[in-house]
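step 4 of 6: structure.
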Amino acid sequence: MVEIVITIALLVAGYFTGSILEKNHFKQIEKDEEAYSHIILHSFEELSFESPVKSVYMVSHGTVISHDYFKRFVASLVNIFGGRVTVYESLLDRARREVQNELKKQASQLGASEVSNVRLETSSISKHNTQNQTGCIEVYAYGTAICYEKQV
Amino acid sequence: MNTPASSITLSTLQSIPGQSIQKHFGIVSGNTIRAKHIGRDMMAGLKNIFGGELKGYTELLNESREEATNRMIECAQQLGANAIVNVRYATSSIAAGAAEIYVYGTAVSI
């Protein structure tokens, strides 16, 4: 009986705090995306402009995020029937967009106008031996920031 | 992360834009294996209920990557290179609670 009450309490806590945190995070991401929209991020091995290059720097950033109790519960239900796990899709979307924003931020601090050859990497950090799996996902991004002699 | 003050230029491209490669020195690499911190682990356990970013782990992994990168840079400096091109990162988890971070690239002089 006590266990059921604890589970329900955790579910409720996870649902409310999780959705508030997610909403705030999305707001922050959208704000950053707008602020750094002048920087181009691409995955080609070439440059977008044919003007002389002043200097190049490597920029990188990683972030670790975790899901909440409610999301884990929903995901375990989906695991029975199969299908799209939309609760996790938004989680990974947040992480990826945040690291990309961070790359843009670092590039703009260096005075670069684009980040070339960006690679995104995802790895899961979790305890394997316990029954209660803690799921943490790390998203890591790196690329080459290019500063042109003339501001383009 | 490569700071502007560093004497070695890092790039994820196959060359350094605006410069030509004079000499190749072969592959240089750096790695580090990090274990989790018990305090951070407990905090992560709490965060797993509420969700959100795990600042402790973010810091830990960024520090580890920096250390691996510095080892790679040292390696390149010993060879007499002044740039590393085509840098790639790789992560693998070797045991529960420990992760290996590996970074490799081609040392060149420009």
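step 5 of 6: annotate
 - The first strand of chain A starts at residue 40 and ends at 41.
 - Chain A has a mean pLDDT of 83.
step 6 of 6: archive
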